[in-house]
Every structure is written in C-alpha cells, then in structure tokens.
C-alpha cells in the first residue's frame, strides 16, 4: 500500500464533510451482535468510537498504515496499531470490517476486498467507502500540473482508474456475498481562501508533498491554485461549492 505521510490535524479540518460518508456507509450495515468489529485504516480514530458506541459488546480493533495517524488515534483514546491493509486478514470472529476512505491507496484493493470477504465468517459484513472523484477537475488539474516539465520526473500520480464504479465492486464480491453498491455525490460548501486546494492538501496532494521539499511543494501549489480557483469559482456569498463523488460497497457474506 502507498504510504503517504499524513497530517491528522489537516485531515480533520474538514471533519463534517469527511465524516458524513462514514455514517451513510454504516447505516447500511445490518449487524446486530458482532463479536469483533475492525476499523481498517482508522485514521485519527475520531470515528472508531462510533463503532464502539453502536456495538458496545463487540471487541473493536483499529489500525492504520500511518504512524502519525495511529498516534492521533491513541490520543483520542483508541487502542490503534500500525498495520498495512495488505498485511491483514480478518479472523474467524471478525463479523464487521469497515474500511472508510482508505482502500483507494492500494492498487490491488479489489482483490483485497474479495480476500477479506472470503476470510470472514458467514453472516459477516464488509463495508467500504472510497472517493470516486479521480476524474474531477480537482484531481485532473493536479495531474496536469504534475505532468509539466518541472514536475513530471519527480511526481507520479494515479489516474481515474484508481477506483472502480459500483458494478465493478459488485461483480467482484457477488460470488461470496450479497452486495449493496452505490454512489453519492455530495455538494460540499467550502469557505476560506483557496478552499479546494486546502481540501486536497489533506489527501490527494499527500504523494506530491512526499515527493518534494518544502520550497518545491510551495511552487507546485502556487502553480495549481489558480487553476483550481478557475474550475471552482466562489459563489456570490464567497463560499465555494465542491462536488465530491463517493462510492460505497456493503457486502453481507454468505
């Protein structure tokens, strides 16, 4: 799995927008009395407590590939550990696995989801949400800048093929589970200066940040910012509407 560095505080600066898909995903999970619930890619752990609150009698396990995120999760009272999703397999008592906005970083995540579902007990629930906006202007413009002569030998970004459409996930999991797959585009209201740049700085720009030193990253951001402002102009009240497509998959294992 790609190990980009993470800034937990920056990531949580848009907490309301980032948390809403988690709650929408969880609402479609029908588990009543799971033995073990796993938050795979728990981030700063601020949503892990939601799992513990819904299933108070379950053992709740949390992990993330980022040591910084795990440290933040522990500060939030979550007993998280550093672990990569590709190195983990559900145990026989793992009745619920939630992977919220993490599997898009793993190129082989479709096969990984199938492996997890096959390892889970009958009746288990696998719930996954990934961003589906890799062909949106925010990401397409970032790739355009990265492909320029100044950056193309230093920055590598994945394209729109990073994630699948809902039928792709459904087809992969249908042999082993009853699948509910859908997509939602959230129209997010952002405020402040260069809000779209700030939003993607916490996620999509992490590989760029890791590839460049501070000065080079600042130049990259300066080159990208006016393109984003043109693609996402402010409304009359000064706020910016930012459509964000997300893809959801809930698999009930047979």
Automatic annotation (TrEMBL):
The keyword Methyltransferase applies. Keywords: Methyltransferase, Transferase. It holds the Pfam family Methyltransf_23. GO terms for molecular function: trans-aconitate 2-methyltransferase activity. One of its GO terms (biological process) is methylation. Coiled coil: none annotated. This is Trans-aconitate 2-methyltransferase.
């Amino acid at each position: 799995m790609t190990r980009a560095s993470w800034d937990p505080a920056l990531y949580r600066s848009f907490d309301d927008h980032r948390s809403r898909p988690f709650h929408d995903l969880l609402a479609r999970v029908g588990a009543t009395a799971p033995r073990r619930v796993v938050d795979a890619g728990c981030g700063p752990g601020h949503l892990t407590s939601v799992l513990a609150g819904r299933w108070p009698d379950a053992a709740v396990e949390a992990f993330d590939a980022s040591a910084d995120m795990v440290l933040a999760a522990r500060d939030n009272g979550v007993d998280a550990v550093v672990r990569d999703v590709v190195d983990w397999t559900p145990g026989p008592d793992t009745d619920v696995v939630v992977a919220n906005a993490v599997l898009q970083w793993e190129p082989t995540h479709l096969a990984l989801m199938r492996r997890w579902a096959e390892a889970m007990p009958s009746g288990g629930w696998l719930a996954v949400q990934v961003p589906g906006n890799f062909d949106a202007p925010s990401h397409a413009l970032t790739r355009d800048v990265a492909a320029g002569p100044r950056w193309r030998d230093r920055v590598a970004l994945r394209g729109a093929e990073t994630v699948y459409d809902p039928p792709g996930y459904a087809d992969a999991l249908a042999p082993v589970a009853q699948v509910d797959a859908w997509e939602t585009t959230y129209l997010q209201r952002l405020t402040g200066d260069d809000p779209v740049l700030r939003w993607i700085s916490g996620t999509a720009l992490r590989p760029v940040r890791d590839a460049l030193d501070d000065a080079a990253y600042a130049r990259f951001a300066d080159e990208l910012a006016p393109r984003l402002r043109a693609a996402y102009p402010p409304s009359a009240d000064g706020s910016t509407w930012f459509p964000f497509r997300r893809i959801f998959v809930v698999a009930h294992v047979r």
